[in-house]
């Protein structure tokens, strides 16, 4: 009996601890380049200068954010990344300068894009509500590493030839 009670307690504790994790799932249908272009407010080709995590004023963490798992980030109230991008080419949208900031989720099911510093990307973004002039993007917008083929398609779309 004592062994069964311990096992039941362990199971209940495990289930309760898992209930604290946010269930994440990202599901979207693939878009054509034209659909992604039409849906975006801004389309740029740019180089990622930095990736940092958006933390609130009361967030105190025990280790560097870069070393945390996604679950640890969520447990500590960290839910977004801010990506600073040097714009090399603006395909769509109003001129906002040569540097823009884009927010995205952390990845791992929340539709966040994995950005790497010093790499070029084609970024399809939309205005972020309450974003202080920042844009937002996600994998459903089809933001991805730069390819010449997609760049050519975008230029044709911009000229009305696709």
Structural class: alpha+beta
CATH class membership: Mainly Beta
State the CATH topology: OB fold (Dihydrolipoamide Acetyltransferase, E2P)
- Rg result: 20 Å
The first-to-last residue Cα distance is: 72 Å
Major beta sheet, strand line-up: 1-2-3-5-4
The helix content, as a percent range, equals: 25-40%
Total helix count? 4
Q: Which spans of ≥5 residues are poorly predicted at pLDDT below 50?
A: 6-22
Integer average pLDDT: 81
3D shape = elongated
What features would you describe in this structure?
The structure is a single chain. Residues 6-22 have low confidence and may be disordered. The chain has a single domain, classed as OB fold (Dihydrolipoamide Acetyltransferase, E2P) (Beta Barrel), CATH 2.40.50. It has 162 residues and is of the alpha+beta class. A five-stranded mixed β-barrel has the order 1-2-3-5-4. It contains four helices and six strands, in the order H-H-E-H-E-E-E-E-E-H. It is elongated.
Put the structure in a nutshell.
The chain is an alpha+beta fold.
Helices and strands in order, then pairings?
Blueprint: H1 2-19, H2 33-39, E1 42-54, H3 70-75, E2 80-92, E3 99-104, E4 120-127, E5 135-136, E6 144-145, H4 148-158
Parallel strand pairs: 3-5
Antiparallel strand pairs: 1-2, 1-4, 2-3, 4-5, 4-6
Output the keywords.
4 helices, alpha+beta, five-stranded mixed β-barrel, OB fold (Dihydrolipoamide Acetyltransferase, E2P), elongated, 6 strands, 26% helix, 162 residues
């Amino acid at each position: 009996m004592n062994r069964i009670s311990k096992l039941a307690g362990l199971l209940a504790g495990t289930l309760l601890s898992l209930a604290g994790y946010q269930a994440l799932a990202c599901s979207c249908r693939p878009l054509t380049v034209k659909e992604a272009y039409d849906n975006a407010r801004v389309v740029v080709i740019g180089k990622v200068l930095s990736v940092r995590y958006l933390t609130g004023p009361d967030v105190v963490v025990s280790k560097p954010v870069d070393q945390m798992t996604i679950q640890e980030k969520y447990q500590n109230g960290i839910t977004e990344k801010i990506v600073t991008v040097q714009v090399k080419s603006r395909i769509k949208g109003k001129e906002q300068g040569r540097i823009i900031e884009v927010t995205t989720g952390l990845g791992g099911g929340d539709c966040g894009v994995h950005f790497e510093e010093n790499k070029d990307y084609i970024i399809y973004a939309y205005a972020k509500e309450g974003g202080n002039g920042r844009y937002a993007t996600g994998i459903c917008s089809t933001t991805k590493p730069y390819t010449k083929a997609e760049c050519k398609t975008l230029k044709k779309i911009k000229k009305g030839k696709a």
